[in-house]
Amino acid sequence: MNAHLYPCLLVLLLTASPGTRGRAQDTIARQNFEPVAQPVLTYTTETAPYGSGGIPTWNVVDRIRGIEDAADGTRFWAARDVENTISGAPRSAITFDAGNICSLTSARFVFAYRVVGYDGGDDFGYVLHLDGFPEPEVILIDGRNGGGISTDGWVYDTVAIPGTAQTAALSLFFDQNGDDVAAIDDVQLLATGNQGSCRPICGIRLGEPVVSCESFTPDADELQLRIPYSGGESGVSVTSSTGIIGGDDPASQADGTITLGRLPEGEVHVLRVKGGDCDLTLQLAYPADWCTPSDLVINEVLADPGEDINGDGVINGADEFVEIYNRGTVDHDLGGHTVHEGSNSGARFTFPAGTVLAPNATFLVLAGGGSLNPDCAHGIASGFLGLNNDSPETVTLRDPDGKVIAQFSVEDAPAGESLVLSPDGNLDGGYQLHTAVAGTPSSACVETARLPVVLQSFTATSLHDAVRLDWRTTQETDNEVFVVERSKSGRSFREIGRVPAGNGRYFFVDYAPFPGQNIYRLRQLDTDGQETVFGPRLVRLDSGTVRVYPNPTSGKLFLSGEIEPDAVASVHRPDGRRVLSFRGGAVNVRALPAGVYYLRIRRASSSESFRFIKE
């Protein structure tokens, strides 16, 4: 370049218009609390205005102690002693509603604020609302103990509005008590233009479901799903082709979890989130043997360590562990099995080929390595275990085919100690605080009391005027007798019979049950006087209020009586295999081969079985 041209180029740079450095911002709406401001940015307050500058004041003023001039014009909004008997609350807010802003490009709120003497306990900040949902709160001024905080005159702040939002509002809040003063003025909605797209955008994103097995039986088990979602959308509703919906409502709460329960495995279920700008469909399909019976159980889980488990000299997340226990009578090959936690981020641990777990033995999966006892059968997770210690968590053990064979779920893990089965392997007793059963925070690789009887199954079936209890065991050591106990409410149990130790298959019929609800449990007694409790199991007797007809039938089978809308009914062969599942008062069994079948009705707290003949 010719050196004589440099001065000209410099002049051009210095005299260039400021608009060439970025797109100009247009004022779409404004609120400066003057009598005339066009177009006007409207505002509302939960507490009606009061005061004119003295103590207290929540109103438009032209001056107040320490603030003599407005940021724009002659008037501004002042807050002085907002915690008073008029407001009735320690905090007051003023909200500016921009309405529908989807056509705007690079939209933002801009406002001026001023604070005089804010001390300990005084706060000023804002909350941005997008599509009716609040974003995280932002504190701009946090009062300080021992000395007040004041701004150097009026300060302007900017709050950007994401381009995906359809509507926006800004709430400015004042949490203040006493003779301290704050003010806001010149609140504006700015944008670079109004050629943006108003194409509807759903504000909800569905995450990967976390699946839990309600039971592990050869029959059709039911599943419980937790479906995380991000965002929210006003006006949506959540529906499902089957199951019971619960959890959070994305129409009123952003970022939460939808739960879906009582889903039979082996069927296709459809979850739909529709309304507002959303029409989302999630197809849920799990094989009939998704939940597979096994002698392996998750025996102990430590999610929030309070002691150095792995021996590396520090207490941290590396001390988390999951303990697997074999409650069967034969060796179990663990090769290819995987341990997962609820984040759906893949296997945390894969058992090496040739890993064998003997009966009554444990294997510890640790989050991180250290100097653990070499005699302890253990493995180190891939990276970390990532167990939640302050929110719901699910730990899953899968076989090499991906089937779920054991599972552990907790809403909020205890601090500093594990949850454990007691005695080891006793799923019917449920997970308990380790300090409550052993007096110590955990027992990684330490043998505790072994279960004298391993219960394979325990069911209670209504016979309309009686209840039949069936249970099976896979292992018995020094077993003397099973005591059958019954309760109406579950608070206190009374003995109703005894069944001596036998060959592992047992039943008991209660010929005088309570009308309605009955709760049963087994109290197993050892020859040395020790005991273990199994159960409880709940069953309802509705005095014949449900009837199945015609019986025999060659086509449709009808149900009449007290059947809840959410009751799930299924048809089973005599060997227990499910062949049909339905809701409502009728099912067509024409396609079934002739023979004897059982119709089972499953409710939230009970189940009933009916025998019928297909001609």
From TrEMBL:
<dbReference type="InterPro" id="IPR036415">
    <property type="entry name" value="Lamin_tail_dom_sf"/>
</dbReference>
<dbReference type="InterPro" id="IPR026444">
    <property type="entry name" value="Secre_tail"/>
</dbReference>
<protein>
    <submittedName>
        <fullName>T9SS type A sorting domain-containing protein</fullName>
    </submittedName>
</protein>
<dbReference type="Pfam" id="PF00932">
    <property type="entry name" value="LTD"/>
</dbReference>
<dbReference type="InterPro" id="IPR001322">
    <property type="entry name" value="Lamin_tail_dom"/>
</dbReference>
<feature type="domain" description="LTD">
    <location>
        <begin position="292"/>
        <end position="412"/>
    </location>
</feature>
